[in-house]
Design a protein that fits this description.
single chain, about 250 residues, alpha/beta, Rossmann fold, 7-stranded mixed beta sheet, 4-stranded mixed beta sheet, 11 strands, globular
């Protein structure tokens, strides 16, 4: 399975002049290839944000679940403010505990969306983590929706921002409701898909084109995943930074 994931990741990276390689049995990498599988884990890609020198002051964790991703990201951004956006009341206890433990962590229980103050239908999955707005499976529940712009303004968070999306096909309405802070956003981390998982979701090539239209380009990726049904490529996390980033001024491989 790891070999299949590696092939998929390399096919996606080929247009960008990058490649992942396995370690050889003797512990060395093959000549002319400089990447290991571990470098395409989420934690490694998040750490590279700091290595690139990209400024981040506030991190918005959209679809935060129990806040685990935010806690891991704090290792690399110890001075940043964190705001978790999570629609499930079942996560309130865990998020409240994190708020008491980490002074710069806060949360809001809502769906991030395009309009502030309305209700949306959330289909709640049995494991909670697969819950999807306007999904086709799970138990339907009305939940409040807020725009990221409104919540960030209320919390008085300061840019530059990092937005992390784990939102199961509901990315476009969230982006529509983030137009103000996108002007001050340096990085967007987005879980993207190889299939149209909802009626209004974008597949990952379409999302890359959309993000480029609003001023962001893909520069990194992590965690490619195969679906259980047939081991076809299912999803990955793409890292976008501003299109005018100095990362894109260097055009060579080495």
């Amino acid at each position: 399975m790891k070999r299949t994931i590696l092939k998929i990741a390399n096919s996606l990276l080929r247009p960008f002049g990058a490649q992942i390689t396995r370690w050889a049995r003797n512990g060395t990498a093959a000549p002319s290839r400089g990447y290991t599988e571990s470098e395409f884990m989420m934690s490694s890609a998040v750490e590279r944000i700091t290595e690139h020198g990209i400024a981040i002051n506030s991190i918005i964790d959209i679809g935060a679940s129990n806040g685990k991703w935010s806690v891991e990201a704090m290792k690399f951004f110890p001075n940043a403010s964190f705001l978790a956006i999570e629609p499930l009341q079942e996560r309130k206890g865990e998020l409240e505990n994190l708020k008491h433990v980490y002074p710069k962590f806060d949360y809001v229980l809502c769906v991030a969306g395009e309009e502030d103050g309305r209700q949306v239908m959330l289909n709640v999955s049995g494991d909670l983590d697969g819950s999807t707005v306007n999904g086709t499976a799970g138990v339907p529940r009305n939940v409040p929706a807020r725009t990221i712009d409104a919540v960030v303004s209320e919390k008085k968070l300061q840019g530059p921002f990092l937005l992390k999306f784990d939102t199961h096909g509901y990315e476009l309405p969230i982006l529509y409701g983030s137009k103000n802070i996108l002007k001050e956003t340096n990085v967007v981390i987005m879980e993207v898909y190889n299939f149209k998982i909802t009626d209004h979701s974008l597949k990952f090539p379409e999302m890359c084109l959309y993000m480029e239209d609003i001023g962001f380009r893909c520069y990194d990726m992590s965690d490619p995943m195969l679906r259980l049904y047939d081991k076809a490529f299912w999803q990955m996390d793409i890292f976008f930074c501003r299109s005018d980033s100095k990362l894109f001024s260097y055009l060579q491989y080495k």
